[in-house]
Amino acid sequence: MSGAVGPLVELRVWGTTGVLGSLGRMATGPVRVRRSRGLRFAKLLGTGSARTFTPRDADPHHWALLTVVDDEREAAAVAGSGLVRSWSRASHEQLHVTMRPLASRGRWSRREPFGPGPFRPPDGAPGGGPVASITRARLRPTRALSFWRAVPPVVTDLTATPGLRLALGVGEAPVGLQGTFSLWDSAHDLETFAHGSAAHRDAVRRTRPERWYAEELFARLAVLDVSGTYDGRPV
Q: Where is the composition biased (Pro residues) (predicted)?
């Protein structure tokens, strides 16, 4: 396969109990992220159930950080940063997923966070091993109601698909800047949902004519390592 191995992508999801403290760290976090060295891209994210993509999905006890760096040395610097240490001290659990991109299309905050590709599979990653999907969209306010109406059937099919290990809503805001992170046993399982779900196929078909998104991103990543727990369970 042509292309180079993509950057190192890490998602940390912290489980916390202090909502006000978490909101404070979210408020000051973007400045701390911008001061961090070696980061190609980073976003502090709220999380939710991804069932309706409305504010009632929001989970005030789980927060996430997505980081993109070039190599393991820079990843170690992120792990030891004050931002990560402050969240870790305040959390009672953490899920940590390490990945490299396999494919990416679109933009996030007017940037290609994983690079333009094409990518080749990372060395040592099992061909039939776990994969992750990251989506992110900036909804057009005038089209949000139409989008929300299309979500429930897709979620029903998603949660019923074998091989799904975790599905989270992620985003910079409860409304308008929303996305998903899903973790799968294999690429085959992810493709079974993407191509086998009639509701998902219909949503994809309607995306362009309905003009739901002012900006969108779809990425698939090879999962190198998963550690920790989410909601008290190993993933």
A: 115-124
Question: Which residues span the domain enclosing 182?
Answer: 8-228
Encode pLDDT of 43-101 as tens digits. 999 998 877 666 778 899 999 999 999 999 999 999 999 999 999 999 999 999 999 99
Residues in the chain: 235
Q: Give CA–CA dist 123/140, Å, rounded.
A: 40
Q: Which two tokens stand for residue 190?
A: 């992810």
Instruction: Give domain status of residue 30, yes or no.
Output: yes
For the entire predicted model, the pTM comes to: 0.92
| Beta pairing partners, 94 | 14
User: Considering the domain boundaries, does residue 101 fall inside one?
Assistant: yes
CA distance 138 to 77: 30
| Amino acid letter for position 235 | V
**What's the mean pLDDT in 104-125?**
87
DSSP letter for 122, please. Answer: P
- The radius of gyration of the chain from alpha carbons, rounded to an integer in Å, stands at 17
Tokens encoding 146: 């139409």
Residue 114, both tokens = 């994983």
